[in-house]
């Protein structure tokens, strides 16, 4: 075995220096043994991958990834549409590519975990867009950034609901992002009410009028630190106090 | 609808076709996610890995051509490299990250169960190898250690490491072929 043959594993694992890598590639051209061994290692990749158990895909992964990818090269092709007629509070289903497309106009300036990407995608694709743009006319889209994340967490539910919430600030306004899935069907006239909770006091802060999946950004009402977010089913929006049982909640 | 080959979708994508990107993404989403997860054991990191992969492909920082074999093997190689880079990066991170990571998107209970299941099933695929072969596959494929590190860790001469790895790979290949049948 030649000296270079020892570099096979390190070549495969990408741990060689550039010079050693080039030298090994030159060696590969002349060493059938290494060539074959490398081929065997590469050929095993697909059967190994296919033999793995399937993992549940995180909600919204596709739109986050495609948003980032498309946004990485295609900036500035189209002007950002400020959805002026839309209210700042809105919930919606986002088709993955639409979400990705609406996001790709923007350069992301938040350092990112996944939740922040969701927030960025949502804020930019929802009506909150209009809010941010109107607040900051002099420096549009590119300047978008969350100023501070105040808290985040996953909902715990007495039913099937899954999802997460994040409280963040932008230009001194606090916002709550919620992303939910498996919301049980609602009866006619019912809605999901979101409550922000400070100490023991709930405050109605956003309504979702659909089941299944929903994602929304709501400006936070009032001041002070939000300790938790809860969801109840209510007959009317924005009641003084919850009348239904809490179906999901998250401590922040 | 006529099903296009990965290779032709890839070329369409490289000429800027977003639809082709989406088709390829959809096709490989599950495979890449389980694969990345086998390295990171973490949803958020797996997602970061996959994002990195598509970012590289879309921006032409890596280039596929048919000399490199099948598209599927190629994209898995890219994914594996990105996953190993991610593991190396994470290793250098201060431990403060860990808390946030574990508090990620997964539902805690399901996650625990899932991890247990995954561990069992994954071992199952490699389990029939001899213990020293299992260890080698783990260290080479999923930890990406250098040959020197493996040699030190297993107390084997460098040359022997390569031979042993090769026979472990061939044994695993046989097992996996047997499973497919």
From TrEMBL, chain A:
A GO BP annotation: regulation of translation
Domain Anti-sigma K factor RskA C-terminal: 116-246
Location in or out of the cell: Cell membrane; Membrane
Keywords assigned by UniProt, alphabetized: Cell membrane, Membrane, Transmembrane, Transmembrane helix
Domain Putative zinc-finger stretches: 9-34
Pfam families: RskA_C (PF10099), zf-HC2 (PF13490)
Record-annotated membrane-spanning stretches: 112-133
Main location (coarse class): membrane
UniProt keyword Membrane, yes or no: yes
GO terms for MF: sigma factor antagonist activity
GO cellular component: plasma membrane
Membrane topology classification: Single-pass membrane protein
First and last residue of the signal peptide: none
Record-stated family: Belongs to the zinc-associated anti-sigma factor (ZAS) superfamily. Anti-sigma-W factor family.
Full protein name: Anti-sigma-W factor RsiW
From TrEMBL, chain B:
RNA polymerase sigma-70 region domain location: 24-92, 126-174
Alphabetic keyword roster: DNA-binding, Sigma factor, Transcription, Transcription regulation
UniProt xrefs under InterPro entries: RNA_pol_sigma-70-like (IPR039425), RNA_pol_sigma-70_dom (IPR014284), RNA_pol_sigma70_r2 (IPR007627), RNA_pol_sigma70_r4 (IPR007630), RNA_pol_sigma_r2 (IPR013325), RNA_pol_sigma_r3/r4-like (IPR013324), WH-like_DNA-bd_sf (IPR036388)
GO BP, one annotated term: DNA-templated transcription initiation
SUPFAM superfamilies, alphabetized: Sigma2 domain of RNA polymerase sigma factors, Sigma3 and sigma4 domains of RNA polymerase sigma factors
Entry keyword DNA-binding: yes
CDD domains hit by this protein: Sigma70_r4 (cd06171)
Protein family: Belongs to the sigma-70 factor family. ECF subfamily.
Name this polypeptide is given: RNA polymerase, sigma-24 subunit, ECF subfamily
């Amino acid at each position: 075995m030649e000296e270079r043959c020892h570099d096979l594993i390190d070549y495969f694992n990408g741990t060689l220096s550039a010079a050693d890598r080039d030298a090994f590639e030159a060696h590969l051209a002349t060493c059938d043994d290494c060539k074959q061994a490398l081929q065997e290692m590469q050929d095993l990749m697909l059967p190994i991958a296919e033999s793995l158990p399937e993992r549940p895909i995180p909600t919204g992964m596709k739109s986050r990834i495609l948003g980032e990818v498309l946004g990485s090269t295609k900036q500035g092709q189209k002007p950002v549409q400020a959805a002026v007629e839309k209210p700042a509070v809105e919930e919606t289903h986002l088709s993955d590519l639409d979400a990705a497309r609406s996001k790709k106009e923007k350069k992301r300036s938040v350092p990112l975990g996944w939740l922040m990407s969701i927030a960025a995608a949502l804020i930019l694709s929802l009506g909150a867009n209009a809010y941010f743009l109107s607040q900051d006319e002099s420096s549009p889209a590119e300047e978008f950034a969350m100023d501070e994340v105040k808290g985040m967490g996953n909902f715990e539910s007495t039913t099937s609901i899954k999802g997460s919430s994040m409280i963040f600030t932008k230009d001194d306004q606090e916002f709550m992002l919620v992303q939910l899935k498996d919301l049980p069907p609602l009866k006619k006239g019912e809605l999901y009410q979101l409550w922000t909770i400070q100490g023991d006091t709930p405050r109605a802060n956003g309504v979702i009028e659909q089941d299944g999946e929903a994602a929304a950004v709501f400006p936070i009402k009032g001041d002070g630190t939000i300790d938790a977010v809860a969801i109840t089913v209510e007959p009317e929006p924005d009641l003084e106090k919850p009348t239904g049982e809490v179906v999901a909640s998250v401590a922040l | 609808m006529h099903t296009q080959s990965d290779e032709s979708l890839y070329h369409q994508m490289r000429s800027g076709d977003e639809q082709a990107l989406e088709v390829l993404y959809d096709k490989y989403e599950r495979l890449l996610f389980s694969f990345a997860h086998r390295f990171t054991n973490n949803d958020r990191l797996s997602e970061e890995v996959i994002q990195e992969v598509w970012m590289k492909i879309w921006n032409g920082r890596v280039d596929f051509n048919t000399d490199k074999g099948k598209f599927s093997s190629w994209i898995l190689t890219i994914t594996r490299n990105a996953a190993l880079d991610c593991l190396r990066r994470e290793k250098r991170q201060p431990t403060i990250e860990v808390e946030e990571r574990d508090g990620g998107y997964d539902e805690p209970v399901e996650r625990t169960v899932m991890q247990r299941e995954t561990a069992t099933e994954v071992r199952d695929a490699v389990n029939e190898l001899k213990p020293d072969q299992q260890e080698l596959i783990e260290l080479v494929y999923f930890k990406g250690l250098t040959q020197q590190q493996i040699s030190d860790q297993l107390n084997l001469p460098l040359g022997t490491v390569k031979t042993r790895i090769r026979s472990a790979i061939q044994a695993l290949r046989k097992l996996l072929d047997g499973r497919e049948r």
